[in-house]
Design a protein that fits this description.
By secondary structure, the chain is mainly alpha-helical. It has a single domain, classed as MetI-like (MetI-like fold). The chain contains 13 helices and no strands. It is elongated and about 75 Å long.
């Protein structure tokens, strides 16, 4: 019990520091709001997002707060339902990146030697490509589609996760408690899972929060190019693309999905900054 209290106390202190950060609280509120919207979109949307409910390109009005698109679908309903696709894209793509990336980083940092050299060269090769270019290469191989975008965005983040985790492991593995765990007979997998990872995951938590926002932004960009979600899916990047030729006559078709992307990405960035201020000892010491 004492050990559990010892482990949980730093995280409890970090949570209290996070709550004292105004930016972090705003980011958390924005994200929670969008999560609630995504969960209850079918209840709060005034119309079905794929049903024609009015005249095409109808300007915002009391009947249609965000106007209608070029087919006559309610834009407010499509933006609300689009939160489901975008948040799911961010969460699943991060999962595709964090699992292999953290595994590679743990192995490279813990074992060192030729294992570290081999993994580091592989990571360096992936880092030679900008993440968006790497995602485009993967999409070109797999084909367009929202699930393929999740895979592409996730894989493009693998080298960053691996490099971050490797650095964290190198800073932790020389600690006395790691050596003690090895001396009492714990195997490498147990040491990495129970003693290294749990004490080296603070930077990972911050980076993952920021990466979700980045994944949503990159995924929306790929959908904007026609490589992600396909019509009639309500997805923010696709909706912005559908209205790009009508900006002077029907600005709302692109503007409101763009504002949705802006608010959710800002929310994750503010949350990440708040977590970094709470968890990073260098920042706390200033």
């Amino acid at each position: 019990m004492a050990n559990s209290d010892t482990i949980s106390l730093p995280w409890r202190d970090a949570f209290q520091r996070f709550l004292s950060d105004a930016g972090g609280r705003i980011g958390l509120a924005l994200i929670l709001a969008w999560i609630l919207i995504a969960v209850f979109a079918h209840l709060v949307s005034p119309y079905d997002p794929n049903v024609l409910v009015g005249r095409a390109r109808q300007a915002p009005s009391p009947e249609h707060w965000f106007g209608t698109d070029m087919l006559g679908r309610d834009m407010l309903s499509r933006v609300l339902h689009g939160s489901r696709v975008s948040l799911m894209l961010g969460a699943i793509s991060v999962l595709f990146g964090i699992v292999p990336g953290v595994s590679l980083g743990l192995a490279a940092g813990y074992f060192g030697g030729w294992v570290d050299a081999l993994i580091s060269r592989f990571v360096d090769a992936l880092l030679a490509f900008p993440s968006i270019i790497l995602a485009l290469i993967i999409i070109a191989t797999l084909g367009p589609g929202i699930f393929n975008v999740m895979i592409a965005v996730g894989i493009s983040a693998v080298p960053e996760y691996a490099r971050l985790m490797r650095g964290s492991v190198l800073a932790v593995k020389s600690q006395p408690y790691v050596e003690a765990a090895w001396l009492v007979g714990n195997g490498p997998l147990r040491i990495m899972a129970r003693h290294i990872f749990v004490n080296a995951n603070a930077p990972l938590v911050v980076f993952t929060t920021l990466q979700v926002g980045n994944a949503i932004l990159v995924g929306a960009g790929l959908s904007f190019l026609g490589l992600g979600a396909q019509p009639p899916t309500a997805e923010w990047g696709l909706m912005s693309s559908e209205g790009r030729q009508l900006l002077q006559r029907a600005w709302w078709i692109s503007a409101f999905p763009g504002l949705a992307i802006l608010t959710v990405v800002i929310g994750f960035n503010l949350l990440g900054d708040g977590l970094r201020a709470a968890l990073d000892p260098k920042i706390r010491a200033r």
